[in-house]
Amino acid sequence: MGLVFDIEQPTIPVEGSDDDYAVRRIYCVGRNYAAHAREM
Question: How far is 12 from 1, CA to CA, in rounded Å?
Fold first, then answer.
């Protein structure tokens, strides 16, 4: 099964190398997590 359009794969550079690393997931961590948890 094909896709209707191409999906761009996000990458980040590997320090000390000419290579890139494919990013699959991004996790956000906040300093004020407890305050946001109380809001929920």
Answer: 28
